[in-house]
Write a structure and sequence with these properties.
Layout: H1 7-26, H2 28-37, H3 46-49, H4 61-72, E1 81-85, H5 91-98, E2 104-109, H6 112-123, E3 129-133, H7 149-154, E4 161-166, H8 175-187, E5 189-202, H9 204-211, E6 220-221, E7 229-230, E8 240-243, H10 244-254, E9 257-264, E10 279-284
Parallel strand pairs: 1-2, 1-4, 2-3, 4-5, 5-8
Antiparallel strand pairs: 5-10, 6-7, 7-8, 9-10
Helix pairs in contact: 4-5, 8-10
């Protein structure tokens, strides 16, 4: 299913990703000195931080930003139980700690080096924190994975979360995994629990800005069934967008209450009122 990409195109994408990783590794000594001189040694190294979008918004701008949204939109409180799906190397967790939040937190991610660092450097000193590797195969982000998303979630026994956050997860998820993740998140929330999820949403609001030439990203249909659109055919999961009504239908099918949902459109659409770059969806179980 999906746009057919030549073997040469896939090799080109893999080469580009490898070159980018090598460049970050070369910058590691300079990053180490910078963190040491500025008393930022509690933060992960550059080659791990880049996985969580912290390179263009200050040292941990995205982490503090999401804390604000969790507090204001998802009503996260001290003592709550929080699951961070796609936590990367724990930048959100560092921001939560710095801002005084205390509670039970589990972070999960498919990138094992990030999880290993977070478990060794954050969970080891912050009570109630734990980081778990999602050993899920992903052609772009974790080719060593041995499980499907469904298989991993079936073995993930944690339940009764007050809040679940998934920042920049669903912007990389294709339709075959969308329902799996949405259902897995909803099943693990307490009744009345909230999920804060980010997406690229194709909507009437977005289309109006697109017509005016204000969208910062452009997407093209992926496959023949119209379930989603992608930015780059050679790297489909690099950026994935969903039609708003289709997404709401999938959220409802997963068990969320759609009558109480809120959507905060992102600035990627060109909206001057966007809260974040991506669209933010808040739903309750």
């Amino acid at each position: 299913m999906g746009d057919k990409v030549s073997a040469g195109g896939r090799l080109l994408v893999q080469f580009a990703r490898g070159a980018r990783s090598a460049a970050y590794q070369l910058g590691a000594p300079f990053d180490y000195v910078f963190r040491l001189m500025n008393q930022l040694d509690q933060y992960p190294p550059l080659h791990l931080r880049r996985h969580v979008g912290g390179m263009n918004a200050g040292f941990n701008g995205p982490g503090y930003e999401i804390v604000a949204y969790l507090r204001l939109l998802a009503r996260l409180r001290d003592g709550d139980s929080l699951w961070d799906v796609g936590c990367g190397c724990g930048m959100l967790e560092l921001a939560l700690h710095d801002l005084g939040w205390k509670g039970r937190l589990i972070g999960t991610d498919i990138h094992k080096p990030c999880i290993d660092w977070a478990q060794g450097n954050i969970a080891s000193r912050l009570e109630g924190h734990r980081f778990v590797h999602m050993d899920i195969y992903n052609d772009a982000y974790w080719r060593k994975g041995t499980l499907s998303a469904r298989e991993w979630l079936d073995g993930f026994g944690e339940r009764e979360f007050d809040v679940v956050v998934a920042k920049s997860l669903f912007t990389h998820v294709l339709p075959d995994e969308l329902d799996v993740y949405l259902k897995g998140i909803c099943e693990r929330l307490k009744p009345g629990g909230r999920a804060l999820l980010t997406f690229f949403i194709l909507s009437g609001v977005q289309q109006d800005f697109a017509t005016a030439g204000r969208n910062r990203l452009s997407f093209r249909p992926y496959g023949d069934d119209g379930r989603c659109s992608i930015r780059n055919p050679m790297a489909p999961t690099a950026a994935v967008a969903y039609d708003e009504q289709y997404l709401l239908d999938r959220l409802r099918a997963a068990g969320f209450r759609i009558d109480g949902h809120t959507i905060h459109h992102g600035v990627w659409t060109g909206s001057p009122e966007g809260l974040s770059f991506q669209d933010i969806v808040v739903v309750e179980k």
